[in-house]
UniProtKB/TrEMBL annotation, chains A, B:
Residues 331-603 form the CSC1/OSCA1-like 7TM region domain. Residues 7-177 form the CSC1/OSCA1-like N-terminal transmembrane domain. It is a multi-pass membrane protein. This is CSC1-like protein At3g21620. The chain crosses the membrane at residues 6-28, 102-124, 333-357, 377-404, 425-444, 464-485, 532-562, 584-603. Pfam families: PHM7_cyt, RSN1_7TM, RSN1_TM.
Length: 733, 733
């Protein structure tokens, strides 16, 4: 058992490590040669140019000789905090700003809880002599924890009241935060400039039709079912106000990037029916029209003509657009089963690898290494190091594995892929880090135990072990949290890779631009890590409040570091307007419920079982609170209110009456294959392409309209296709 | 333990009872005096007039002397089956027809299962001697069940294969049935005549506004956010094509039914702002417009301006229209807790009542009864009878209690109230009848046991008891199923009540009309009963297949009886177009999963635990199947596809170009208080009211439009109200 002294020593070591990282960072960042590693965001925004290109002494291009800048080596911290939130939203997007708010939320929840715990619970715990008389070995940490209260004591009422207070406080903060984030999101969406995704709906599972191509089919369907009433041939606005402004189909086949004959190649792809996916981005003239189409069911058969908001163009995950409905169900089942086995049985293959990767087999495989291995020091090093290596490698690749799973499941935007991976990563950490540390043994053993245990025994088993693991988790917070965050700011890996690339590969300024790896927040790994801290904080708040200050230091420090990184380094690949907040909210709720159940289990072993009814009420209330929040705030993250859409449409019409929306939208959703082809060409080339795209929908629309008024057979035979039936009836009156 | 002989005797008794009921029914139904009890549906349809009013001998008006009709006393059965399904839909509505399909579904699932079970499993079970050598008492029924297989036998593979076969068959039938019912629903909705609810959306939680009345607010909101584009003041269609055709507000205060001054009274209510609820029925010009509004979110704040499809006018539960969003969450919590206690602790108050209601306390309360009670025979009768009485009374009132709970929860249509009550009733029966019979003891004791048992022990505990209870459930099916259904057709209670009323109260023909009680299907009690049979059938299909024929007889007999009742007796209060089918489907899925888990528990005690992984796969696959069905078919029961709406709108416009939709809609949604006032008046009176209602929206619309074009302050002060802001911006271009 660690004493307070031990923890102090560990804290000192970790603080020193963190400090060393910060120092290294402070020195490295002001060297001009590292500028692109530590300030890539500004390069990407075009606000900073390479110091190497500027004039001046040769050496000072690479190394900073200005001694004054070394003195102010920590001044990045206040600088990081200075940029006000609205500016930060403009600079880095809402996703990043709301992501930072998760750290702030940690501070908001845990600072008052810690103050209350230290003024009320620590004295209550401390002024007992249970442990002294128990004859057990114990440490000072345990004297501050719930373990020091005698069995059946009335003092447990304090813990009960505190559990209620903490729950209410957490719920209050969560509700307020949800409210703020929802308002921020709505405000962000409302104040935003015109964006293509506001007008666009993604249509998937377009049913196959033997008579019409997908393009024609999509056009007919939406002409019939979403007639934009401002279009009227009577009034003569034809063409300019075509209903379906454009339906840019998406082509899979990989057009070769020959800049010479891009257009002919593209034409070929466009005309090849096999390369056309049954999915389309349909744009509308108004936000209202898009909002209506995205939120409603189009067809009788709910598995075809599936509409949803188009993700931001950058956010589209093109590979998954064409998965049929039935496959989605099957894929989800497969992934669910695979993830179950991954979580509970991942140790089995690792154990096999470990059993193979021993010194004997290495010696057998590489006999020439034997003399080196047989050295006693090296041998013991390898023996201590080897077993862990398979696990470390596995854990390193885990986020990638989870991301592959999510991709296989068929999500169609990067943001939803990351959110799904984050959920899975959290579950994995909950089972294997949280439960795995509390009840030693593999996840599978735990699972087996739980199945064979009675339902009310499970929280008891875990609850009892909770206080004993406090020191372990305090150390964990310092190593993983403090030193880990400090390591994040140093960016050792990108630094090394950048310099290697710079040395060996970079020839032009453009190459240097590509060698730069700003990275992203990494929601799929970062958020589950924060959530683990929320879980630890809530679980230990009542049991061992001494853990809370360590938590608070983590949240505060991480907030500053990530704010700095977001301002100077990360470059988000997409903007989902904080669509992840419901996930963050629900995971904190889960942590709260877990903490309540574990406290119940713990107290039931402490002769305070008369408190069980009161403790059972807590999760019920918490779930009820969650359902309320879900109903009240979640729609802001899922749907798009018509009032809002109408307001923006009206405003826009008032301000820019003659806006050419078509021109704005036509190039928004193009498969990267085509896009990169465009990028290679010059700007004028790009304009030509634009012209080409602009023509196409008009052409189709004209053909279509003529058909409407001439009963003569038109190009596609004039046969009565399913959608033609409806159309013909419409033209009757 | 009952032998096959015992069951035969019980079957004979129950068949005789059922036969006696049928005979009594056959005789009673052809007596003219009972005509209104057994054929009320035809009276309500106006297709049958009272035999008492016709000419003929006095006595023959009351008693049937035609001896020939007594010979054909069972001919109602083929008659009930003769009416073809489309005609039945027209006669009794889709709800009733689909309800009958539940019984048919039982036959479709269990007849093939029974055939397979009798050809394969009965021989496999029978040809063992386990029970003979076990020294236990056993019966012939047990010899036919899984109990007769020796522990660890390879014959369990038969049961495993059968479990798979039965699951796949059930899923196949379920999927096909879901498909058919969904198609029937869509066809019904599509082929239906114009109905007010197709054009109407219910708006709830209209936010309070200090400057505008609810009516004005609703009108402004929908004028701005759902501008119907065919309306244009420019074109001069004003009034005729007013966007918001009508928003009939709903007034709570109970207008006294004085036919003299109805209109003045109504005016008073209309003008009293306190009696106006923040809810409105908003009608649209097209089905498309209504479909869009019902399926989308209107406002930023998802707790106000809640829109949903208006229920059928008959189906509206007016009392719940005005419950605010926050209260709904709280009410749901309260009901959930109350239902939990009702299910698991209902025995406690009943036990208390029972302990009070003993002979001693009766003697104390009513000393004059003592001489009678002290007679030995009467005493023992009371002692045997009394304890059960409280329970019987409770069970009689249970559906009512559950219905009150559902009403308290805030559902806004009778159909959803019945669906919710049915779910609760099923859960109650599952816990207290199914589990309660298998594991003797109260539900609370079971709950307590389950909490203290390990998770994998629970299916084992129940599974082991399953085969032992087969004979009990066979008897249950005969008493509750066979004799119960035969009792249903006799309608003893309505018969007695009708004759009592007829004798004491009835003065006019109208009174007689009111004395008639056709009743309804009673979805909230009937469906859970059928579900209990599905559960029993699926659970025993593998374990004791001898139970299946009894089940099949029930389903067949009940089908005929209920078909007869639906044709001749029941009068549905509403038509939900089979909206209950997803509930039916999911409960059968639950029964399937329960049967799989129990089989797993049973086999694990039989030394066949190597089959566990194979058996665990079954529920996983079943859940996956359910999710597929939910995605594929449920939307047909929840949403209304735009394609469909557009098609109907187009057709209608083509056929009836000059339809006065406003006239059609204006009287559809009126609170029953007003409606009954109308009924009292003559037809011309009704017309006057119509005119009155017709005027109102036009008036408001005019005021509104003038405001839009004149910047002068209009009637309500011209101050910038929230919705005015938007409006003003719209009028800029």
């Amino acid at each position: 058992m660690a004493t307070l002294n031990d923890i102090g020593v560990a804290a000192a070591i970790n603080i020193l490590t963190a400090f060393a990282f910060l120092l290294a960072f402070a020195i490295l960042r002001i060297q001009p040669v590292n500028d692109r590693v530590y300030f890539p965001k500004w390069y990407l925004k075009g606000l900073r140019s390479s110091p190497l290109a500027n004039g001046g002494a040769f050496a000072s291009k690479f190394v900073n000789f200005d001694w004054k800048s070394y003195i102010r080596f920590l001044n990045w911290m206040p600088a990081a905090l200075q940029m006000p939130e609205p500016e930060l939203i403009h600079h880095a997007g809402l996703d990043s700003v709301v992501y930072l708010r998760i750290y702030l939320l940690g501070l908001k929840i845990f600072v008052p809880i810690a103050i209350l715990a230290f003024t009320v619970m620590i004295p209550v715990n401390w002024t007992n002599n249970t442990l002294e008389h128990s004859g057990l070995t114990y440490s000072d940490v345990d004297k501050l924890s719930i373990s020091n209260i005698p069995i059946g004591s009335n003092r447990f009422w304090t813990h009960l009241v505190m559990a209620y207070t903490f729950t209410f406080w957490t719920c209050y903060v969560l509700k307020r935060e949800y409210e703020i984030v929802a308002a921020m999101r709505l405000h962000f969406l409302a104040s935003e400039q015109r964006r293509p995704d506001q007008f666009t709906v993604l249509v998937r599972n377009v049913p196959p039709d033997p008579h019409e191509s997908v393009t024609e089919l999509v056009q007919h369907f939406f002409l019939v079912n979403h007639p934009d009433h401002y279009l009227s041939h009577r009034t003569g606005f034809l063409g300019l106000w075509g209903n379906r402004v454009d339906a840019i189909d998406f082509y899979t086949s990989k057009a070769e990037r020959l800049s010479r004959d891009i257009s002919s190649e593209r034409e070929e792809v466009t005309n090849n029916p096999k390369s056309i996916m049954p999915a389309a981005f349909v744009s509308f003239k108004t936000r209202w029209g898009a909002a209506v189409c995205a939120q409603t069911q189009q067809s009788r058969n709910p598995t075809v003509w599936l509409t949803e908001w188009a993700p931001e163009p950058r956010d589209v995950y093109w590979e998954n657009l064409a998965i049929p409905f039935v496959y989605l169900t099957i894929r989800r089942l497969i992934v669910a089963v695979a993830f179950f086995f991954l979580t509970f049985f991942f140790v089995i293959p690792i154990a096999i690898v470990q059993s193979l990767a021993n010194i004997e087999s290495i010696e057998k495989a590489f006999p020439f290494l034997r003399p080196i291995i047989e050295v006693k020091f090296i041998k013991s090093l390898i023996q201590g190091f080897l077993p862990g290596i398979a696990l470390k490698i596995f854990l390193m690749f885990l986020p990638t594995i989870l991301m592959i799973m999510s991709k296989f499941e068929g999500f169609i935007s990067l943001s939803s892929l990351e959110r799904r991976s984050a959920s899975r990563y959290y579950i994995f950490q909950f089972v294997n880090v949280f439960l795995g540390s509390i009840i030693t043994g593999t996840a599978f053993q735990q699972l087996n135990n739980f199945i064979h245990q009675s339902t009310n025994q499970i929280p008891r088993t875990i609850g009892v072990s909770i206080p004993m693991k406090a020191t372990f988790f305090i150390t964990f917070i310092m190593v993983d949290g403090w030193a880990g965050v400090a390591g994040e700011i140093l960016r050792l890996k990108p630094l090394i890779i950048y310099h290697l690339k710079n040395f060996f590969l970079v020839k032009t300024e453009k190459d240097r631009e590509e060698a730069m790896d700003p990275g992203t927040i990494g929601f799929n790994t970062g958020e589950p890590q924060i959530q683990l801290y929320f879980l630890l904080g809530l679980v230990y708040a009542v049991v061992t409040p001494i853990l809370l200050p360590f938590m608070i230091v983590f949240f505060g420090f991480a907030y500053v570091v990530y704010r700095h990184q977001i301002i100077n380094v990360y470059n988000q690949e997409y903007e989902s307007a904080a669509a992840f907040w419901p996930d963050v909210h629900v995971r904190i709720i889960v942590a709260l419920i877990v903490s309540q159940l574990l406290l119940m289990g713990l107290l039931s072993t402490k002769g305070a079982s008369q408190s069980t009814p009161l403790l059972i009420t807590l999760p019920v209330l918490t779930i009820c609170f969650h359902r309320f929040c879900k109903g009240r705030y979640e729609p802001a993250f899922v749907r798009y209110p018509l009032q809002e859409a109408m307001m923006k449409d009206t405003l826009e019409r008032a301000k820019e009456a003659n806006l050419n929306l078509k021109g704005f939208l036509q190039n928004a959703y193009i498969h990267p294959v085509f896009k990169s082809a465009d990028d290679n060409g010059s700007d004028s080339d790009n304009d030509i392409t634009t012209g080409e795209w602009e023509q196409e929908p008009t052409l189709v629309a004209t053909k279509r309209t003529s058909k409407r008024f001439t009963p003569l057979p038109s190009k596609d035979g004039g046969s009565l296709l399913p959608s033609d039936e409806v159309k013909d009836e419409r033209s009757k009156p």
